[in-house]
Amino acid sequence: MAEVLETVLGHGGELVLRRDGAEFEVIENGMFLMDTRNGESERLLVTGAADRLASGARVVIGGLGVGFSLRAALDHSAVGSVVVVEREPAVIAWNRTGPLREVHGGALDDPRVTVVEADLLEWLRTTGEMFDALCLDIDNGPEWTVTEGNASLYSASGLERLSQLLRPGGVLAVWSAGAAPGFTARLRERFAEVDVAEIPVPRGEPDVVWFARG
């Protein structure tokens, strides 16, 4: 039986961190969000984008999660710096000094990392910076949003804003817990190059990661 380590009230409602054997799980309002059991697709979100970039790339990771994507970014030779945008203070704390720190070896301590505690959509609307890669993992998918307002991020207008924040040759990468044909179509309307990767998981339909640029 899973052991509850901490329960807090976050911006999206009740957040629960629990341990199940050697693994950790994060639950929001009773809905499973993430765990530490695999992480292959979360790593691919970043490595697949970085493989398409030159050395010294500036990367944004939207959603800290359990740190899989951040660790993968720091271990990739093309990545020069990383901005992590995470709205939940508890998730940041669990990764910085709490039990999740051991999952990624204290990646938040790396001097190449900047952590921004903010709602990703608001940050994307207001930032004046441009990046080589935007790697987004804040929902269970474009058609399965954790927060209702996040749906606008995956709309045509949302994709237009994301494209404005990419440097020439930059890559947009988006993670999902399942296929989203409508989102694929919108990406292909806006970007010249769109690749869709399916990553098998032990149970259920494959995870999906999109890579778009141009």
UniProtKB/TrEMBL annotation:
Keyword Phosphoprotein: no
SUPFAM superfamilies found in the cross-reference section: S-adenosyl-L-methionine-dependent methyltransferases
Keywords tagged on the record: Polyamine biosynthesis
Domain of life: Bacteria
Keyword ATP-binding assigned: no
Entry protein name: Spermidine synthase
Species in which this protein is naturally found: Amycolatopsis halotolerans
